Amino acid sequence: MPDDIVLYKKLINEKLRKFLRSVGIGDNRLLRAMEYSLFSGGKLVRPLLTLSFCNLCNGDIKKALPLACAVEMIHTYSLVHDDLPCMDNDVTRRGKPSNHIINGENFAILAGDALFSLAAEVITEKETTELLGTEVSIKAANILFKCCGASGMVDGQALEFSLKKDMKGLVPDFSPMSSMDTLYLKKTGKLFGAACALGCLAAGMDETKVEAANRYGEDIGVVYQIIDDLKDGSYSTDFGFDDETERGFAVIAYKTIVNVMNTMKKNFCLDEKSFINIFGQELKTTLLNY
């Protein structure tokens, strides 16, 4: 792992702990529930993207650090809620019991809610606005919360539930490619895109670079989700269908993967040449290897 990634992870975790300590929580059980998932051993890929893009644009990563922490809080909140029995009903996360298994459903929900609102506090608090300027802080908040709401992650999760329901009685030649592409983009790609864009924003980059970083992040987020689903076998077992429907879904998933990967090869990161012209080669040889 490159030395700068090791340093970035240390800085992110230290800052996250500082933010949690600064919150006046009256119930320590809530704080423990928040800490349980926030420091559960994740790779911190999204906040690392934020700091790496800031550095790539010759910015001061201290300015990007609050934004990176907000990104990780949003990501963690989404995992806590996704694991709930009423959602994906996952009993483990990163090799450990899910938050609701340890802390109960009530405190898992509250911990997710608290992490979401804390992300908003972090981006808009005085320390951050003084670092970045009020205008940049407001823009960062708009980018981040737009990606995780009704036009982003939340809608992606809703789309996944709808697809699961619609695939009952699936016929072999049915291939809702556009729906699957949109699911991957919203469920995962949007937050990746925001993470990259926020790093550029913290470095004072213009709209062209911010938008290019956002689109780049969305692309690698889609690929990241596909690879993650392939690793955990989601395409054949996670949906809980009968065998016939599972086979049908596997056909759709395979076609979608081929479709998405071909698209990425043809038009990856805007297109690879355009991306390198904007940002240079450094990111592709450092962060993506990690």
Walk me through this protein's architecture.
76% of the residues lie in helices and 1% in strands. With 290 residues, it is mainly α. The protein has a single domain, classed as Orthogonal Bundle (Farnesyl Diphosphate Synthase). It has a two-stranded antiparallel sheet with strand order 1-2. Strand 1 and strand 2 form a beta hairpin. Helix 4 packs antiparallel against helix 5. Mean pLDDT is 80; it is low at 169-175, 235-249, 264-270 and 284-288.
Strand content: under 5%
Sketch the major β-sheet.
2 strands, antiparallel
Radius of gyration: 19 Å
Mean pLDDT: 80
Q: Terminal Cα separation, in Å? A: 6 Å
**Reading side by side through the largest sheet, how are the strands ordered?**
1-2
CATH 2nd-level architecture: Orthogonal Bundle
CATH topology: Farnesyl Diphosphate Synthase
What letter string, H or E per element, gives the SSE order? HHHHEEHHHHHHHHHH
- In CATH, the homologous superfamily goes by the name Farnesyl Diphosphate Synthase
Number of helices: 14
The share of residues in helices is over 70%
State the name of the first-level CATH class: Mainly Alpha
Low-confidence stretches: 169-175, 235-249, 264-270, 284-288
Derived from helix and strand composition plus strand pairing, the structural class reads mainly alpha
- Our count of domains comes out at 1
Q: What coarse outline follows from CA principal-axis ratios?
A: globular
Instruction: Tell how many strands the DSSP assignment holds.
Output: 2
What is the compact description of this entry?
76% of the residues lie in helices and 1% in strands.
